[in-house]
Amino acid sequence: MATRDSSASDRKTGTLSTAVHEHLRKLCLREFPCGTGSWNKSRFLPQRWRTWRELVPKEEETVSAQEETVETLLGLVRSTHSPWVLTKDSSAEDRFLRELAIQHPLMIKDTFFCSYFRSLRVVDKGVSLVDKDLLQFLKLEELILSANEIAEIDANNLPPTLKVLELYGNLISSMECLCSPAPPNLQHLGLGHNKLLGPLQSLFVTSNNWPRLVSLDLSFNDLTDLQSMIAGLSTLKHLRLLVLQGNPLALVPYYRGFTVDSLTRLCVLDDVTVSPNEKHQFRGLSIHGEMLAQEAQFVVTIGNVRGVLDSSILDPEPGPEGPFISYSYYVTYDFVEDEEGERKALASAMTETQPDSVLAEIVEPSSSTVQLDEEGHEEGQQEDQQEVLLVGRPAGPQRPARQVRQPRPGGRQKTRPESPKDVSQEISEFIAEMNQMAEDSGESGITDMEESETTISIRSAPLPQSIDSSEELSKLRPRIDARLCPSPGTVLFSTVRKPWTDVIPCNYEMKHTLKELVRVKAFLLAGTTVTIVEEKILSWPVLPTPVESPLPAKSPLPAKSPLPGKKEKEEKKGKDDKKGKGKKQKAEEAAKDKKAPKKKKEPPRELRQDPPVLRVLGSGLVYLEPLLAGETVVTTVCNFGVVRTLESDKMTNARDSKKIKKVPKKEKSKMAVPTFESVYQPEPLTVEVQIQLQQYRSGEEAFLSLVD
Predict the structure, then answer these.
(1) Do the Cβ atoms of 634 and 533 come closer than 8 Å?
(2) Entry pTM
């Protein structure tokens, strides 16, 4: 007999016996066309004595017009067009009871249910208590109570004849309640998708409690200690089928090999048959179980980015006074980290002078990274690592712009609270400096923002003279897109910033080693967010201030004689040349040296960079739950839709065609020129992402990890 959820009002039934009686009432076993009534009363009239004359065979009597035959009544509960038919999700037991109530309605009694049925299914009925009335089912062998609200079960209320017990999707936090005492004949126990937690659960999976257990399902709980769990399971001599996937302990690289080698009688592990070859590959691994670290290892790989719009074609040509605009693109993703690892990452992020820091191991910094001076380094340690857009100080003609530290391109960004006192002091110093600059140059000092949906730009605006509240203080800080921040409890990682190409190769690979397995499971259930970011930087030439004006130039050297320093270098280079150098080459070099002083080489202009303007091109969630369900690799291509247009592609093509004018005509004819057909199909914005869970494929591979 099975009971299932039919409406939301049925979920608060309380006890198991209440749910069973409520389900039997809804089957209408004592109402038309079931049970007894005017539709079949003649079949159940009391028998009367007959004389010998009445025993002569006669023709079969026809049923009166007010009654229905058994076949007609059965047709009413079987026909799909009948209003008395059961729903499609009804079980075979429900249909059997309806037909039995038509054929033999007098058998439908409470004693019949308790003595006849061997299986009881009560699914998603809000049951929270298994009461003593369950003991009335004298022949019950299968009890399925999945998707309810059971947090604890009194094992004394379970029938001793029980062989199958399923409690999937409940709130059970410990197996101790099932062992006082456990049903002695139980062969299958299903406790998947519960809240089992802690190493003590291994004490309740021994042969003392389950002497005849053949199948055990503990999937998708929070079990973390693999060694202790396997030690308890090894006492179950009849165990042949085991499911542990979805637990944090199944994320360690040696999980399957260690389990297979420890439980030699096991036939199926996580719905995968254990082959003799697999047993041979992991032979001997269980002996060194204590030496294996309980940590999960992931490798994140980010491949090519396609379909990016080249924003530089929309900008005008820069003039001599700027601005010079540069674009770069990178991909970010968030990943969970141990609390200890997060603190180390934050400390290394604060250390600017260490080239071999953790951030440098993630990815090399790009050439656009601005270095810290001594003053900037001290204040950089107090800055919020979560901010992606940093406030830059506008440089007036009297003093150069003060450089501010920017996050490294491959670094981590972590939420860190900033004390109001430090913020107020920093803003006060900033206001004082800006007011002084305004007095000297007649310009205002702070930058104001123009914010669109995904873009933050900065423009000059008047600076308030005082800050009276935290709300005004927060207005001075730039706003950033929420998609550029890591999710709670995670750290943000990013690839190297790359210039625009039709296909941007990220070539990013990062290994994550994590010890807090419960946090890892929660992260995999939530997934990771992958974002493609465009970084726009405006650079301006720095005008020399009166203090920095160059000194009076000395008398120039004769035009024909090279500079002394250059002459020494050339003499040294000439000595190192090989003796077999031809006279023709020496003559050409001498001619170049004579012409060199005549050329006026302009020194490289010093540029001031504005704070980067970040724009999210696309962002999406990558589901990682398959890694918990037994998969070792999640490979996907994140598709964020089309951002390019026909006009933008034509402009890009026109710009690229100008760059190949110097190519010889023969080679130019061979180069493929893109043509735009009538049916234009632009390439969508995509990025290739792969996240792999490391799993050892043999015992030898596991032993090599111990050496490393």
Answers:
(1) no
(2) 0.68
